[in-house]
Design goal:
Layout: E1 12-15, H1 21-31, E2 36-40, E3 46-50, H2 51-55, E4 66-70, E5 73-79, E6 84-87, H3 102-109, H4 118-126
Antiparallel strand pairs: 1-6, 2-3, 2-4, 4-5, 5-6
């Protein structure tokens, strides 16, 4: 699937400055029904899972877009490139309080939002690639 061809016209659009895994998982919890979903980052990730399994995901590359589909209909889109979030329901991005373990806290807060190309630049620097 081509990410540029994703149709988001039926979804609510919200803009954010920073976002973390806790916030995304809380938004999933609030706006997704107990159903099965296909989760994709339009690159390597392509999982079929239930809402409960989705809430238990411990690592997602927040530099890539994340699309969640129900019956091949887009119901959630996180667009890291434009810093936008698209959902079926209007949800608050400024969420407070997280009921999570210390490990979850470290995993979710160890990285803040960064530009999609920064990871590649870091790897080039680390391994001295030209």
């Amino acid at each position: 699937m081509n990410f540029d061809e994703v149709n988001v016209q039926q979804l609510h659009e919200q803009t954010f400055q920073t976002i973390d895994l806790f916030q995304i998982k809380t938004i999933w919890s609030d706006c997704l029904l107990n159903d099965s979903y296909r989760v994709t980052d339009y690159s390597e990730l392509n999982l079929h899972m239930t809402k409960q399994e989705l809430l238990q995901l411990r690592w997602i590359d927040l530099t890539l877009p994340i699309g969640i589909y129900s019956n091949e209909k887009l119901v959630f889109l996180y667009n890291s490139y434009r810093r936008k979030l698209y959902t079926e329901k209007v949800v608050s991005i400024a969420l407070a309080g997280h009921d999570a373990s210390f490990l979850d806290f470290l995993l979710a807060h160890s990285q803040t939002f960064h530009y999609p190309d920064s990871f590649s630049a870091q790897m080039e620097s680390l391994y001295d690639f030209s």
